[in-house]
Design brief:
648 residues, Rossmann fold, 7-stranded mixed sheet, 6-stranded parallel sheet, 22 helices
C-alpha cells in the first residue's frame, strides 16, 4: 500500500503539495485522470498512476493538454469524477476545448488543476492561468497551504457537481513542490458505473447531448453559464477555506491567496505586527464573494493585495470596492500597481516585509548588506564558473554541435527555429547559440515552414526546425503536415531521446509502455513523417561525422520538407543511467591546452561538464565522477589527446 492510500482517517503524512492534491482527489473518489507532463504539475498524474490499480482509477499521459481535457471530460459526461492536470503553458493549449466545455457544462465533478510557475523557474514564461477562469467564466480556487491543497479538492468536486461545470484549481511552484504535514480523511469505495445518458432533449443538462453551441442562440447556453458563476459566488460567501486573522479594525488589511498566504504570514510574524494587520486569505479568487469582501473592506482604509504574478486579484477587489463606494467609502490600495510589490517573478517573505515596512513606516533590515556581499563571494568560490549547460553526455549537445558546424560550412547564414524542451539551451553558448527563434511547443516547425516559403522574396538562407520526440506528437505533427502540403523547403530535426525527458521520462505515443507500465503500441516517428510525404533520414548524434554529412546533404536539397531524426537516449534515462559505453582518457603529453591551435576547444567551446580545465597543470582532464562515457569528446579533439576505451 502506498502512503498516498493510507485509509486511516486522521493519519498524518509529510506530502509534497502535488501529492496533497492527489490525496484530495483520492478522498473525493476520482475515477479518471489525464494530463501532459509539465513542471510543476507532473507529479500529480505520476502519483495517481502509482495507485491507479489499487484505487480502480484510469490514468493516462495524453498526447497534449487539449486531448487530456477531452479525455477527462468524457468521464464527467458519463457521470464519473475526473481530474486534468497541466502547467500554465498547457492551459493555453487546452483553452480551445476549455472554452466550449465551460459552455456545455459537465455531469460528474471535473477539475482542471493548473500549476503556474512564477519566476519561470522551469518554464520559458510565467504565464497566468488565472485569466482563463475569467475568460471562460468558470470558478477558480487557490489553496493557501498544504492541508488545504488536499481538503479543497474534495470541496471543488462537490462545487463542480453543484453548479454542473468544470472548476479550476490553481497551484504554483512553491505550493506544488514544497512539502508540509497533511492530515488524512477516509477513502471512499471505488465501485462506480459509467453511463453516458444522451437520449434527452437538446440542452437537457441531465440526459441531453453534451454540446457547446447553438448557432445564433448564445443565450440558450451563455445565460445559464453566467448563472452558474453567480451561483458559485453565492456559495463562496460561506466557503470554509476563506478565513481572516487579525484585529477587528486593522490598521492595514492584507488580502492574499495561494503560496502568498505563507509569505504574508511569515512577514507579519517577522515584523511583529499581528495586532496592527489583518490577513484575509482567499481560496475563492474568482468570482470573489462580494459580501465577504465588503465586510472586510469596511473595517479599514488601507488594503495591500499580495499575489503572484500579475495584479489580477488586485483588479477584481478594486472593481468591487468601486461598486461599493457609497457603503464602504474611499480606500487606499497597495500592491503591484503602486509598485510596493513586483509584477515579475516570485514573491517571498522579504519582498512582503519590504512592502509592509514601507506602508507602515517600519525600519527593518532582514539581512545586512555585508552578509549578502560575503555570501555572494563564498558562492562564487564554491561553485564552478559555468552557465546553464546540458548534462554530461547529453545527445542534444552533440546534435547542436553538428548542426552548428554544418551551417557554418554551408556559409549561407542558415538558422534554427527552436522548440520547448531541454533543447531551449540551443539559444545559449552551451548550444553554440544555434537557435534563433523560440516560442511555444511545435512552433519551431510552424515558424520554419513559414520561413521556407519566403524564397519568392529573395530569402535563400537554409531554414531548420528542432523539436523533441514528445513535442513531435504534442504539437509539431500539424506543422509538418502544413509544410509538406505547401512544399516548404526546410529541414526538421527531431531530437529523439526516448521519452519526455525534461519532466521525468513520462511516456508518449512513441513509447512502448503507457504510464501504468502496460505494453502499448509505439508509434513510429520515421514512418509517420514518411507517410506525410517528407524525405526522412535517421542518425545517431554521437556519430558526429555521419550526422554532419547527412544534415549537410539535406539542407542542400532545395525542395520540400525534409526530416532528420537524431536518435539517442537521454543520459539520465533508465536506458543509459549508470551505464558507461566508454571510459574516457586524456593523454597529458598530447594535450597542449591553451598552446594548442584549438585553444581548449573541449572545455572552452564544446563545454561538456565531464571535461574540466586543470589550471595547475595547464591541460584538460576527465571528471570521472560525472562523465557518462558517451565518447563524443574524443571526436572533437583536434590533437587526438582524448581517447575512449570500450567498457566490456
Amino acid at each position: 500500500m502506498s502512503y498516498l492510500t493510507d485509509n486511516k482517517a486522521g493519519a498524518e503524512h509529510l506530502l509534497m503539495g502535488n501529492e496533497a492534491i492527489v490525496r484530495g482527489a483520492l478522498e473525493a473518489g476520482v475515477n479518471v485522470a489525464a494530463g501532459y507532463p509539465g513542471t510543476p504539475s507532473s507529479e500529480i498524474v505520476d502519483s495517481l498512476a502509482k495507485v491507479a490499480r489499487e484505487r480502480n482509477i484510469y490514468v493516462e499521459w495524453s498526447t497534449n493538454e487539449k486531448v487530456a481535457l477531452e479525455v477527462a471530460s468524457a468521464a464527467s459526461f458519463a457521470g464519473l469524477r475526473s481530474l486534468c492536470a497541466m502547467k500554465q503553458n498547457g492551459v493555453n493549449v487546452a483553452s480551445d476545448f476549455l472554452l466550449h466545455l465551460a459552455s456545455s457544462g459537465i455531469r460528474g465533478g471535473m477539475l482542471l488543476v493548473a500549476c503556474d510557475d512564477p519566476g519561470a523557474l522551469s518554464s520559458v514564461n510565467e504565464g497566468e492561468s488565472r485569466l482563463f477562469a475569467h475568460l471562460v467564466e468558470i470558478p477558480l480556487l487557490e489553496p493557501g497551504d498544504f492541508q488545504e491543497a488536499k481538503d479543497i479538492i474534495k470541496w471543488a468536486f462537490e462545487l463542480s457537481e453543484e453548479i454542473q461545470n468544470i472548476v479550476m484549481v490553481r497551484s504554483v511552484t512553491r505550493m506544488s513542490h514544497a512539502s508540509g504535514n497533511v492530515k488524512y480523511g477516509g477513502l471512499p469505495d471505488t465501485e462506480v458505473h459509467a453511463d453516458f445518458k444522451c437520449d434527452g432533449q437538446l440542452f437537457d443538462p441531465e440526459r441531453g447531448p453534451m454540446i457547446s453551441m447553438a448557432v445564433g442562440a448564445a443565450s440558450l447556453q451563455h445565460g445559464p453559464q453566467q448563472e452558474k458563476i453567480k451561483r458559485a459566488a453565492r456559495i463562496f460567501e460561506d466557503c470554509p477555506f476563506n478565513n481572516y486573522t487579525g484585529p477587528e479594525r486593522p490598521e492595514l488589511l492584507i488580502i492574499t491567496s495561494s503560496a502568498c498566504n505563507l509569505y504574508t504570514r511569515e512577514a507579519v510574524n517577522l515584523l511583529g505586527i499581528k495586532k496592527r494587520v489583518g490577513i484575509l486569505k482567499l481560496a475563492t479568487t474568482w468570482p470573489l464573494p462580494p459580501n465577504l469582501i465588503e465586510k472586510h473592506l469596511v473595517s479599514t482604509d488601507k488594503i495591500l493585495i499580495v499575489e503572484e504574478v500579475l495584479p489580477i486579484l488586485e483588479g477584481q477587489v478594486k472593481i468591487l470596492a468601486a461598486e461599493m463606494a457609497t457603503e464602504i467609502g474611499a480606500k487606499i490600495f497597495y500592491g503591484k500597481r503602486s509598485d510596493h510589490l513586483p509584477s515579475v517573478g516570485e514573491l517571498n517573505p522579504d519582498l512582503v516585509v519590504a512592502a509592509l515596512s514601507s506602508i507602515l513606516d517600519i525600519n527593518y533590515e532582514s539581512v545586512s548588506e555585508t552578509f549578502v556581499s560575503e555570501a555572494k563571494k563564498l558562492a562564487e568560490r564554491a561553485t564552478p564558473d559555468r552557465g546553464l549547460t546540458f548534462c554530461p553526455g547529453c545527445p542534444h549537445r552533440a546534435s547542436y554541435w553538428s548542426i552548428h558546424n554544418a551551417l557554418e560550412l554551408d556559409g549561407r547564414k542558415g538558422f534554427v527555429c527552436g522548440d520547448i524542451g531541454c533543447y531551449v539551451m540551443g539559444t545559449l553558448p552551451s548550444g553554440f547559440s544555434t537557435v534563433k527563434t523560440l516560442h511555444s511547443m511545435g512552433s519551431g516547425t510552424g515558424v520554419a515552414s513559414g520561413f521556407g516559403k519566403l524564397k519568392q522574396f529573395g530569402m535563400d538562407q537554409p531554414v531548420i526546425a528542432v523539436c523533441g520526440d514528445s513535442t513531435f506528437f504534442h504539437a509539431a505533427m500539424p506543422a509538418l503536415a502544413n509544410a509538406v502540403h505547401h512544399k516548404s523547403p526546410f529541414t526538421m530535426v527531431i531530437l529523439d531521446n526516448s521519452g519526455t525527458a525534461m519532466t521525468g521520462f513520462q511516456p508518449h505515443p512513441g513509447s512502448p509502455e503507457n504510464v501504468l507500465g502496460e505494453t502499448a503500441p509505439a508509434l513510429d516517428i520515421e514512418a509517420i513523417c514518411r507517410s506525410m510525404g517528407a524525405l526522412v533520414e535517421t542518425e545517431d548524434p554521437f556519430n558526429l561525422e555521419a550526422t554532419r554529412k547527412t544534415f549537410h546533404r539535406l539542407i542542400e536539397i532545395d525542395e520540400g520538407a525534409k526530416v532528420l531524426i537524431l536518435r539517442q537516449a537521454c543520459a539520465l534515462s533508465p536506458e543509459r543511467k549508470n551505464k558507461k559505453k566508454y571510459e574516457m582518457h586524456i593523454d597529458e603529453a598530447i594535450c597542449l591546452g591553451e598552446n594548442c591551435g584549438c585553444n581548449r576547444l573541449c572545455t572552452r567551446i564544446y563545454g561538456c561538464p565531464g571535461i574540466v580545465w586543470d589550471t595547475e597543470k595547464g591541460v584538460s582532464r576527465i571528471d570521472d565522477m560525472i562523465c557518462v562515457g558517451c565518447g563524443v569528446c574524443a571526436d572533437i579533439c583536434p590533437a587526438g589527446a582524448i581517447t575512449r576505451e570500450e567498457v566490456e
